[in-house]
Design brief:
With about 475 residues, this protein is an alpha/beta fold. About 50% of the residues lie in helices and about 15% in strands. It is built from 17 helices and 15 strands. A five-stranded mixed β-sheet has the order 1-5-4-3-2. It has a five-stranded antiparallel β-sheet with strand order 7-6-10-9-8, with helices on both faces.
């Protein structure tokens, strides 16, 4: 910690006497600069303890001299007496007291070089302490990064080292130290204004340093502290940024390799290489679930597929793999495979799932295809889940593109709908009910709540408008498809 004016004044061998500014003696001394210039502003950076004997000062010039030092950001003034002046000019003391500027009287017996040495020793000790702090912090962060703690451990360690909170942000979400999530929304808004580099801003009484990481996936580290970070703190944050960038890039490559291995195992299962596939499964991930398997396919964007794989990592008794543009999840039939797969999908965003019938191991390829077809149907219909049994029960309609089927139905039935819009009958619904009951007049009429002769008239009218023979099984099939679309 930098030497303050109070600590310097407390060094008894120097014999310094505080004349003004007792309430601001906690100011740190950046350096010591002796000068007899009446206007040394051009040679100052701020934070210095200025030493002078007042050779060019008197009662008239002293007030303006003090104000120039205050404007230059000088920490304080050491005035040597016994040479040019027997005592510090009264106007200098009164002006300094008025503006709250510290003035220390330096006795004749104390050479300025003694004060300079005292400050130099303190600055050197402070720099050494800062270097030691940085070194220790770097060691602790490195041990955490290469140990079991990983990136999450680095975040917790960094928060402790800087006595603040820490957030790691990426496109998927945020991860941070205790209490940090409360700031995630505001920090993410600030991140929108930062492409790369560092941004510093105030947030809820904290200074926040937001710094992008050197990773292919856009990520950033936010560090919030009650007081601005000192030089050592900034070095510690930079070390954490470097370690997190390296660790996350390595994790990304390793995760990609593991997922390629999972896809390879799924390909082996589809190819009928069950013994080889089970050997890899047992060696790498433990005993696989017992067949027959329930298979769930999850379709979504590449980002959603990546996040759902993250969510499924570590799930016991489940095997998952990316297969084409879907994530295939396999588990013991009769278990909670569907619930766990849907829970993982929910954490990744709105995805669509397809469930295959329980399949024995030798039918894995067929089951995977069934699950994928059902998932595509769920996606087309905007449903979270469709089973293959439900999908296949749709018969001919399941083989027709929904858009094509809708256009076909609208064109074929348009004469009937135009007639119904005039209010002269309900031909579309009458035709639907008649076909649904296989042309049985009495049953269909009762269902519609009309007389059978009324229904006959409506069907005859529909036949005339359509220009089709409704006694033809092929025509009836076409009309039924159009009505379902």
């Amino acid at each position: 910690m930098a030497l303050t004016l109070a600590a310097l004044a407390a060094e008894r061998p120097l014999g310094l006497r505080v004349l003004t500014g007792e309430d601001v003696l906690d100011r740190p001394i950046g350096w010591v600069h002796p000068t007899e210039l009446t206007d040394p502003q051009a040679f100052l950076e701020g934070g210095e303890l200025l030493l002078t004997t007042g050779l060019a000062l008197d009662e008239e010039t002293a007030p303006a001299y003090v104000r120039r030092l205050v404007a230059a950001g000088v920490a304080g003034l050491g005035f040597g007496v016994g040479l040019s002046h027997d005592r510090v000019p009264g106007s200098l003391v009164s002006t300094a007291a008025e503006v709250g500027f510290p003035v220390l009287e330096v006795p004749r017996k104390t050479p300025f070089i003694a004060i300079t040495r005292a400050v130099s020793r303190a600055v050197a000790a402070d720099e050494y302490a800062s270097t030691v702090r940085i070194g220790r912090a770097q060691q602790e962060l490195t041990r955490t990064a290469v140990g079991k703690g990983g990136p999450a451990g680095v975040l917790r360690k960094l928060a402790k080292l800087v006595d603040g909170w820490v957030l790691l942000l990426d496109t998927a979400g945020t991860e941070g130290s205790a209490g940090a999530q409360a700031y995630a929304g505001e920090v993410r808004e600030e991140l929108k204004q930062l492409r790369t580099g560092t941004r510093v801003f105030e947030l809820d009484g904290h200074e926040v340093v937001l710094q992008t990481l050197h990773t292919r996936v856009r990520r950033a580290l936010a560090v919030g502290t009650a007081e601005p970070l000192d030089t050592a703190g900034r070095h510690v944050v930079n070390t954490a940024v470097a370690l997190l960038s390296l660790a996350l890039e390595q994790d990304l490559k390793l995760t990609h390799a593991w997922r390629l291995l999972r896809t390879g195992v799924a390909d082996l299962l589809s190819a009928g290489q069950h013994e080889l596939a089970f050997g890899v499964l047992s060696t790498v991930w433990g005993d696989p679930p017992e067949p027959p398997w329930a298979l769930v396919a999850l379709v979504g964007t590449p980002g959603q597929r990546r996040r759902v794989c993250d969510a499924l990592e570590g799930e016991p008794s489940l095997f998952f793999a990316e297969s084409g543009s879907a994530v295939l999840v396999a588990g013991r039939s009769g278990g909670d495979v569907v619930d766990r797969a849907l829970a993982a999908a929910a954490s990744a965003g709105p995805m669509h799932a397809g469930l295959a019938d329980p399949v024995p191991l030798e039918d894995f390829a067929a089951g995977a295809e069934q699950a994928d077809l059902a998932a595509r149907a769920a996606e087309a219909e905007g449903k979270p889940l469709v089973t293959y049994a439900e999908h296949s029960a749709r018969g001919l309609l399941s083989l027709i593109d929904p858009v094509v089927a809708r256009i076909y139905g609208e064109n074929l039935l348009s004469p009937l709908r135009r007639h119904d819009e005039t209010g002269r009958g309900d031909l579309v619904e009458s035709l639907r009910c008649w076909l649904e009951h296989h042309g049985h007049w009495d049953v269909a009429a009762a269902r519609l709540g009309v007389h059978r002769h009324t229904l006959r008239n409506r069907i005859t009218k529909a036949q005339d408008l359509l220009g089709r023979d409704l006694d033809s099984p092929g025509v009836r099939a076409e009309l039924w498809v159009a009505l379902q679309a």
